[in-house]
Each structure stands twice: as structure tokens, then as C-alpha cells.
Amino acid sequence: MTTDHSHAGLTQLGQDTTLPNSPEEATLERVPNPQAGFGYVARFTAPEFTSICPMTGQPDFAQLVIDYVPGDWLVESKSLKLFLFSFRNHGAFHEDCTMTVARRLVDLLEPHWLRIGGYWYPRGGIPIDVFYQTGEPPADVWIPEQGVAPYRGRG
Questions:
Q1: Per CATH, is 30-133 categorized as 3.30.1130.10?
Q2: Which of 115, 18, 100 is nearest to 51 (CA)?
Q3: Does 94 show up as a binding residue in the annotation?
Q4: Is the C-alpha dihedral spanning 106, 25, 15, 43 positive or negative?
Q5: Is 76 annotated as a binding-site member?
Q6: Which of 11, 71, 87, 136 has its CA 20 to 30 A from that of 29?
Q7: So where are the chain's domains?
Q8: pLDDT tens across 20-75, in order?
């Protein structure tokens, strides 16, 4: 069996790149899943996700945990990192940031299943956590808990 590990068409992997100015300008890229047909979970954790409050201009901080059961495609991790970094100067509410990440990944990858947990640090004394999943998780795939404790100083 041969596997095509071609990275043709990728514009960021192995290249000098600059940080996109906004999530809209960021390019998310995908690569073929060499294990398509096998059910497994891929997890990305971004413990230092930041965005800007659209009302105050102050920074907001979150830990994002993204789990997905890939179909034919995997997200290329450098492009995901740059996409997530692009929120650093982006003004949006917690719900919008979390759902923008989820929707872009779902549109790009067409995964069998995806969930995201946006665990946001308090602003004004209230943490706002945002959760989304595309549907019921596949019964034949082990999906661990996200492992982020309810807010009590997160850590």
C-alpha cells in the first residue's frame, strides 16, 4: 500500500508566513487523511487563545479544545495555528469567536463529527463558556472528556 504524502497546494506549511490580520483573512488548509476509513479522534488544544472584546477593546482569553473525527481530510496544523492567532486583534464576543472556529473547520473538513469547548476566562467576574458539536458522537470511537475544570481559577 502506498500513501500519497503530497503537500501540493499548501501555501503555509514549510513556508515563511505572516500572521493574518483577521480570521477572515486567514487561510485554513487541509491535507488528505492517510487513515481515512478508521474511526479516531484528533484533538487540538489552544490554552492561550486570545481575542479582543468588541465593546471595551480589552483582551479576552480562553482555552479552546477542538475534537474531531476526521473523514477524508485533516486540518493542516500550521494553518490552524495561524488562524487561531488571527483572533488576537479581532473584536468579537466569546460566542462568535468559538462558533467561527467551529464553522470554519466543519466547512473545510466535513468531519464525521466535531466538537469545540471554548473555556473563557472571566470578564466582570463571569466566565462565559461556549460549547458546540455537530451531532451525536460516533458510537465506535473513544472520545475522552475535554478535561477542563469548571472555573475555579482554571488550572
A1: yes
A2: 100
A3: yes
A4: negative
A5: yes
A6: 136
A7: 30-133
A8: 788 999 999 999 999 999 999 999 999 999 999 999 999 999 999 999 999 999 99
Question: How far, rounded to the nearest angstrom, does the alpha carbon of residue 77 sit from its chain's CA centroid?
Answer: 10
Cβ 16 vs Cβ 72: under 8 Å = no
Query: Does residue 24 have a known ligand-binding role?
Result: no
Which grid cell sits at 26? 486567514
**Alpha-carbon distance values, 111 to 28, 42, 46, 80, 89 (Å):** 15, 11, 20, 15, 29
Give the residue among 24, 33, 27 at the shortest CA–CA distance from 3.
33
Q: Does residue 25 have a known ligand-binding role?
A: no
Query: Looking at 4, 16, 60, 67, which residue is catalytic?
Result: 60
pLDDT (tens digit per residue) in 95-124: 999 999 999 999 999 999 999 999 999 887
* 60 is a catalytic site residue: yes
From the CB of residue 83, how many other CB atoms can be counted at a distance below 10 Å?
23
What pTM does this model have? 0.88
Amino acid at 46: A
Whether 72 is catalytic is no
